[in-house]
Amino acid sequence: MQDMDGQGGPVVSYAYKASLIGSAHRFELTEEGLSWHIAGRAGLWRYDEISAIRLSFRPVSMQQHRFRADLSHVKGGRIAILSTSWQTAALMAPQDDGFRDFVVALHARMAKAGSRAELTAGLGRKTYAAVLAFLAALAVAMAGLLIRALITGELAGILFILGFAALFAWQVGGFVRRNQPRSYSFDRLPAGLLP
């Protein structure tokens, strides 16, 4: 959503509900900087005061297509911006276009302000390594079960293991692929981490 600020420039805004109870988290990109309103608190971060942005893909059980932007301030504050909003007890609605437009506009304004923020994508390197180690151990265990089922001739066991492995690879493979740790620049945002 775009409005005009008091100086005649465009204001890009975005809001989402992080939980069913409580007010929406609201953000605006103004000429002065990023204005935010979260849980009764408010502030304004100048674009050159944002020290880091991490983009990631974070699916949850209620929404398998959810993205996240974590912003850090030079004085230690942190803000999380999500691409989904709670609607009812059973519905978390995607806000793909609004989230993408807001994140792209934020990067453009930071670049224009001469920001030196650290831009990273995916999980942290240690977390990603732990995920890969867990998946490798799981793959060895599944291979062992498959070999045992093949030796004993258990057709139902073979089909179950193959089906489970295919479903698991489909569900987890996208998460692992999208969240590979890497750096990016203001003019080349990672397409896989934007809806």
Give the number of domains: 2
Strand tally:
12
Q: At the first level of CATH, what is the class of the largest domain?
A: Mainly Beta
Helix content: 25-40%
- Dominant shape: elongated
CATH superfamily of the largest domain: Pleckstrin-homology domain (PH domain)/Phosphotyrosine-binding domain (PTB)
Distance between the termini: 17 Å
| Largest sheet composition | 5 strands, antiparallel
- Percent of residues in beta strands? 25-35%
Task: Name the average pLDDT.
Answer: 88
Low-pLDDT windows of residues: none
Radius of gyration over all CA atoms, rounded: 21 Å
Structure description:
This protein has helices at residues 96-112, 125-152, 155-178; strands spanning 2-4, 10-16, 25-29, 34-38, 41-45, 50-57, 67-73, 78-82, 84-88, 91-94, 118-121, 182-183. It has two domains: 2-122 and 182-188, PH-domain like (Roll), CATH 2.30.29; 125-176. Helix 2 (125-152) packs antiparallel against helix 3. A hairpin with a 2-residue loop joins strand 4 (34-38) and strand 5 (41-45). Helix content is 35%, strand content 31%. The strands form three sheets. The protein has a five-stranded antiparallel beta sheet with strand order 1-2-3-4-5, with helices on one face. A five-stranded mixed beta sheet has the order 8-7-6-11-12, covered by helices on one side. With 195 residues, it is of the alpha+beta class.
